[in-house]
Design a protein that fits this description.
The chain is α/β, with parallel strands linked by helices and about 240 residues long. It contains 10 helices and 8 strands.
């Protein structure tokens, strides 16, 4: 019942493999800003140190293959990690000592920890031995693209203007967000925007652009990990066609 939504590349890939015709129309952040985090005092410095540790699981199918891939590259065994289901309270579980390891977004939970004065050891996914992927992104349906192409273009033109403003004006854009969502922690929003602003577009020629190789490599990886019932056509999973030039 909606024309647009926010999702993640792994969710769009799973949907496409199950014949659900969703399409990604813009990458909100150009590269993956998630990481595995541990308390600095834990002594964890790399994925090789994950063995024997407790991991704060969200209960998502992709978590184990991601951890397994990172650990295999470091010569470690994911079967020696204890998965503890914490729902979406990974950071509180980590800070509270219930777990040793959590998968976080550096631009939000990472900053939350900093603001609490907690030092983290982080192992980012981007730049690791695993393929990069877009998280998050903006989605629509094949039907909306075919029936409401002009609406999609106008929506993305307005959205791109907003992100371009945030890229150039992180402080001002944080204040706009706080004005419209005063329930958020002002210090967190301001610090998060300073972290994210240079990462929205990063090395892309313009905001929102998605690369064919990012889609194809991650889809192949997901299929190899048996996360998909069948292969997908990556070229149909995303489009740059409706972004402003």
């Amino acid at each position: 019942n909606t024309d647009f939504g926010v999702s993640f590349q792994e969710e769009v890939t799973i949907a496409r493999a199950n014949d659900i015709p969703v399409v990604s129309i813009a990458a909100i952040i150009q590269h993956n800003t998630s990481a595995f985090a541990a308390l600095k005092s834990s002594g964890i410095q790399s994925a090789a140190d994950f063995e024997g540790k407790r991991y704060a699981s969200y209960g998502l199918p992709i978590e184990r293959p991601i951890l397994e891939g990172l650990m295999r590259c470091a010569g470690a065994d994911v079967n020696k990690v204890e998965f503890i289901d914490v729902g979406f309270d990974a950071l509180p579980a980590l800070l509270g000592g219930r777990v040793d390891l959590a998968w976080i977004f550096l631009g939000w939970e990472g900053i939350q920890a900093q603001l609490k004065g907690v030092e983290l050891a982080v192992i980012p996914l981007y730049g690791s031995c695993l393929p990069d992927y877009y998280t998050p992104l903006i989605i629509t349906s094949e039907k909306t693209l075919s029936k409401k192409g002009d609406l999609v273009r106008r929506f993305l033109a307005a959205t791109a203007r907003g992100y371009e403003y945030a890229i150039k004006n992180p402080e001002e854009s944080a204040e706009i967000l706080l004005k419209h969502s005063p329930e958020n922690d002002p210090a967190l929003v301001r610090a998060s925007q300073l972290y994210l602003s240079p990462r929205y577009q990063d090395d892309a020629p313009r905001w929102g652009i998605q690369k064919a190789e990012t889609w194809s490599r991650f889809a192949e990886w997901m299929f190899a990990q048996k996360l998909l019932p069948k292969k997908i056509d990556p070229e149909r999973a995303y489009t740059n066609k409706y972004l402003p030039k």
